[in-house]
Here is the input.
Amino acid sequence: MLIKKPSDIPSSEITPKSVYMDRRRFMTGATLFGAALATAGCEMVSPSKVSANTKLTTTKSPLSTSETPTPEKDITNYNNFYEFSTDKYGPAELSRNFRTSPWTVKVSGAIKEKKTYDVDSLMKLASLEDRIYRLRCVEGWSMVIPWVGYSLSNLINQLQPTSKAKYVMFTTLMDMGQFPGQRSGVLDWPYTEGLRMDEAMHPLTLLTFGLYGETLPNQDGAPVRIVIPWKYGFKSIKSIVKIDFVDYEPPTAWNKAAPNEYGFYSNVNPNVDHPRWSQATERRIGEFRKRPTLMFNGYGDQVASLYNGMDLKKHY
Amino acid sequence: MPRRWIVLLKVVVWALCLSPVTLLAWKATHDELGANPLSEVTLATGHWTLYLLLTSLAISPLRKITGINWLIRFRRLIGLFAFFYGCLHLTTYLWFDKFFDLHEIVKDIYKRPFITAGMTAWTLMLPLALTSTAASIRWLGGKRWQTVHRLVYASAIAGVVHFWWLVKRDLTRPEMMAAILTLLLGVRVVDHFLANRRIQPTAVSQNGD
Here is the structure.
């Protein structure tokens, strides 16, 4: 698949050099740290010890935006994670004792070899990249988030899906003990999400293990989640335990909750309003003025072709 | 109740009613409003409009049930504070959300039911605030003044509907507000019904005279 660099970012949005240099220093630091660990030997960080706040060894990616990332404090305190709480400031506190190790991801359905991965071995399946993506929440706010992960296609290629694999379905952990929100009927638990096969194979679709160069904080979907930057945030399912390859359009949590408000595709689209509010503008966290929302969240050059000939008003 | 106590209580009520906006101002100047401060201010001022509006609606029934007549002297104050928070809430919307783009605002009111309901709630509060002085009661006459001020019921209903319609999924809070409002309006309906029953025998006897 041809990977184009995003071209729709005005030069006014390009990160100031000082910030950029800081980030470079940070990245160099992270790489050096990783290299130091590697030379020190694997005993130092055995796979089972990987937990929150572990530095990850990463490389840069041409798929990153050059926009300034949202401060880590905001990314880790302003969360929609209904399994913990419907209050945005709830997950940071309530996820403190969430157990992300041991953690397995069961892969099943229309693939050659059904498998259960330990999350640490899943993380090592491909080299980790820094992917700085825009995130647009369906509620009308947005962030720029420096994720760490690799294209989901790396995993899918290894699994060798059969011709019956038309869609991929993801499922979040079901555990009322650890997820107090699952005791309420606010959504039909466990949370599920889905992508069409070509969407799942798109290089932008990121199997995500980290944030700001470290393993994912619990409130951001640890230990492994999906990030699909051209879709509204709720499509980017968190704390995944199951990946299923199916031949039908998978049921998705928000679509089940309110089918007229949240469609299966849920591509960011300023021209299709939420039935109750406008999607034409967004508030970037940290900014005063609202900015116009971009088609496919600014990733149109890369993903618009996936939806050729589709009526996006109908397939919202 | 001695006048001095009423004055003291008024000071307390003023302080209580001003505490949410004071807290917001303190948070704003100390970077404590979180990641999305403008949304935080909008939500907080909206919540307090409803809380105070419902409180003002609780005063008459409370007075009837408990027989504490001086409660009535706080109704206007609390009602006006509800309007004050309503104005702040409206301003956050007009400013931070729409940046005073008149075309967008009109379109929004027309197109979005929850905005329509919210604007209705605020608009219905406006005549009540404007006629809240003793002079207006004299000018309108007690009976007409009372009829005008029944608009508060419609305003509260519109306010709760506004809250209900804007919430994404978790309806706990709007449901609580709706339950309280139903109770407060229900008490009035029951009271009205009972009062009619009390009056009827008198009416019959009057006819008999």
Notes: Residues 73 and 92 of chain A are 10 Å apart (CA to CA). Residues 46-307 of chain A form a domain with the Sulfite Oxidase; Chain A, domain 2 fold (CATH 3.90.420.10). Residues 17-40 of chain A form the longest helix (24 residues).
